[in-house]
Structure formats: C-alpha cells, structure tokens
Design goal:
The protein is of the alpha+beta class. The protein contains 3 helices and 4 strands. The longest helix is centred in the last third of the chain and has 11 residues. The model has no long low-confidence stretch (mean pLDDT 82).
Length: 94
C-alpha cells in the first residue's frame, strides 16, 4: 500500500482485518513508485519479501529452487503445484 504518512499506513493496515497483530513500516525503496508499483516478483527477488504459492500457500522466497513464476504476480512453489492446480481447474496447465 502507498500512504502519505505513517499514521495513514497504520490506519489502512487495520481496516478490514481479521488479524490481531498488524503493523506497518516505511519502505523507503518504494518512495516515488506510486505510479509504477513493484511486481510481486520484484519484491521477492530484490527486496527479500516472500509470496504464497498459488496452490498450496507455502511460502516462496527468492532462493526457492523449485519456484515457478507464471507471471510477475503469480508464483507456485513447484511444478507439482502447477500440475495439481491445473488438474483441479481441468486444464493441462494453470
């Protein structure tokens, strides 16, 4: 999320949340990126974030050797999960 102030970021983090403990912190690397927000792949590979596998929801980090990126915002933890979701959806590949 992009916010103008720290208090605005904290307020947005608390909105519509089922989590008891939420926090917000400034991410200076993203200053000025409001018009071109980073992709999930960029956040994972360049900034140390992680993503959840689209199929099994395992955490996928930059150093995950079996990760399969279907797009810049969609990742699987392995080819097995790609195949499993494709089978579930009734397609040859997700």
């Amino acid at each position: 999320m992009f916010a103008d102030t720290p208090s605005q970021a904290r307020a947005w983090a608390d909105l519509d949340s089922d989590y008891v403990d939420r926090s917000a912190r400034r991410f200076p690397e993203m200053d000025g990126r409001e018009k071109t927000p980073p992709t999930l792949r960029e956040l994972v590979s360049d900034h140390g974030w992680f993503a959840f596998c689209r199929c099994c929801e395992r955490s996928v980090f930059a150093d995950c050797p079996d990760a399969v990126w279907q797009s810049d915002d969609e990742v699987f933890c392995s080819e097995a999960c790609v195949a499993q979701l494709a089978k579930y959806l009734g397609r040859g590949r997700a």
